[in-house]
């Protein structure tokens, strides 16, 4: 009996130490994560796992209430640190919950003409993935107006060629450094420009899309580099986080309604203006609806929203879906929008 009590006491002590260590990590990480607009990749990485930070804080706080019976002053400090971490992280991720208003309204019950709508499928195929059939099957099933395929190399370009019979308007810029991009469209693409906003190996597309009703919209397809370092691949080493800011500068004097879509390799947490430096111009379709975590498809513990769709005020949302795994590390994102203004 005494042996069992000794073991329980030792286990409780280990649990206390673990809770304190977790609390310190959460407190420090939460504080540093506030500096999200930074050139430091190490600080920027703390902006990604906010959901994980929040969940860990909640679990740790519950365990603390259960096991900390005789509380000392430092126990209250632990509790306050955990609560502080939840408040910091919650202030960001709350934007992706129904607790806030939708910045892009839903269409509701109002009648919509098909020619006023546009559907887009975002697919990061993962360049090293050599199984194209799930992606082809998904495109065939969803039949979007536009497919934006990212990480397209020469192999993927060849595998995706069959869909060009249905998607006659195409822009392809492939490469072997995971930043190739192809846009397939059933709708006419005009004045297509290939921009290199912050890296000569990382293309983005700018095009005018003509809807079936003859109205025109401006579509930007993006896949900027992440804050992490990858050997042999483009990254932000020695550079500022400029790509999204340059995009914001390009669209400030817009002439058409705007859609910005792609794998941004970044999280917005509902603060689109923080990424693009635009004020009340672009709106995240996720805000007020859900996380729709698109990455990582193979790791449940490392999921956050990286594939985004931002729109200007002329649009309402018809449909937003995170689709099934296609053997990539990203889940595809499907969005259908209605041009209402």
UniProtKB/TrEMBL annotation:
Tagged with keyword NADP: no
Pfam families: Exo_endo_phos
Keywords: Endonuclease, Hydrolase, Membrane, Nuclease, Transmembrane, Transmembrane helix
Protein name: Endonuclease/exonuclease/phosphatase family protein
Membrane-spanning ranges: 14-36, 48-67, 74-94
Native source organism of the sequence: Algivirga pacifica
Keyword Nuclease listed: yes
Taxonomic lineage from the root: Bacteria, Pseudomonadati, Bacteroidota, Cytophagia, Cytophagales
GO function terms (MF aspect): endonuclease activity
Coiled-coil regions listed in the entry: none
Domain Endonuclease/exonuclease/phosphatase: start-end pairs: 124-330
